[in-house]
Amino acid sequence: MALANLDGEILHQIRRPLEYLPDRNTALEHLKVMLSEVTGSALDGRLLRVGIAVGGLVDARRGLVRTLHRAHGWDHFPLQDYFTEQVEVPCIIDNNANAAALAECIYGVGRGERVVLYVGLGRGIGGALVVDGKVYHGVSCTAGEIGHMLVVQEGGPRCSCGGFGHLEAVASAQAIVNRLIGRSVNYPETEAAIRRITDGRAERITAAQVFQLAAEGDELARQGVEEVCTYLGIALANIVHLVNPSMIILGGSVAQAGDLLIGPLRERLQRLCLPAAFQDLRIVQGSLGTDANLVGAVTLALQDL
Q1: What is the pLDDT of residues 101-145, one digit of tens each?
Q2: Element (H or E) spanning 251, and its range?
Q3: 296: nearest Cα among 167, 120, 160, 140
Q4: What is the total count of domains within the chain?
């Protein structure tokens, strides 16, 4: 959570883990405390607007959280109205991928681009399409949910939404890590490599470290990276042919792998896409890094001010 000025400059921020809180009411109480702490740092005491970026299905037009796949009790919750009552100023809510995409297009690497596809590769996978500086939401505000595109034939791994074979189930940070750890049980060399790169804390390995092991020559990690690029390539090639973006921005923790991800993915897309669709396409790592969602929330608040 952060306080920013009208130029989008973050003046004060705090970070607290919320994903392990037991229920919605406890989470809301924590958010109220954080909100009080942040707004209390305002130099002149004036708060103009609040932007909220949510990692789940959001109805941005009605200000509702439709559902959070990894948390219970949030279905159809009016989070926008809740915050409006707390701070007594207008609030704007949207999906975190939409918010991060907008931030990258205004403050980051996507500035000046007409059609941008943003892909957030983290614990889950989200996406957003920005056209002429505006997020495309679709009829029911579910546009961009590329994590739930079907990329594996029937019988693929289960997704957080309950479906099977979705992109998120095979290419998210959690999927990348779980796949390598699961396969390494019968491969002592890979197990040793994981312990080495994590200083003996194998359970803390990150997706970016899996890519690093692949670059160092670990065969299991290399296979895993190849699978990720295959699945991402399928999903992104379909989107490229549909909307013809000039830029694909990769964000989230998986994107921290940088060229270890972007290089193979670019080669895969070049093979899968029509030459005319690929020739002007750039695939880049987001420039806002771990602050993309936070800056995205600020960007939401600053819209039309």
Answers
A1: 999 999 999 999 999 999 999 999 999 999 999 999 999 999 999
A2: strand 247-251
A3: 120
A4: 2
Residue 63 lies in a domain: yes
Q: What is the pLDDT of residues 33-68, one digit of tens each?
A: 888 888 877 666 678 999 999 999 999 999 999 998
**Same domain for 87 and 202?**
no
Is residue 249 classed as helix, strand or coil in its secondary structure?
strand
Residue by residue, DSSP assigns 165-188 as SBHHHHHSHHHHHHHHHHHGGG-H
Structure token pair of residue 267:
């080669």
> Cα dist. 254→164, 225, 276 in Å?
21, 11, 28
Are 94 and 238 found together in one domain?
no
- Distances from the Cα of 112 to the Cα of 6, 246, 251, angstroms: 21, 10, 18
Q: How far apart are CA 192 and CA 35, in angstroms?
A: 44
Residue 208: name the closest of 267, 101, 285 by CA.
285
| Strand pairing report for 247-251 and 282-285 | parallel
Closest CA to 298 of 148, 75, 100, 63: 100
> Would 106 be classed as within a structural domain?
no
- How many whole angstroms separate alpha carbon 262 and alpha carbon 250? 8
Query: What domain range is 272 assigned to?
Result: 112-286
Same domain, 11 and 70: yes
For residue 40, CA distances in Å to 12, 174, 305 come to 10, 36, 22
The residues pairing with 283 across neighbouring beta strands, listed in sequence order, are: 248
260 Cα distance to chain centroid:
18
Same domain, 65 and 181: no
Say which amino acid occupies 225.
Answer: V
Q: Do both 13 and 57 map to the same domain?
A: yes
Task: State whether 74 and 196 are in the same domain.
Answer: no
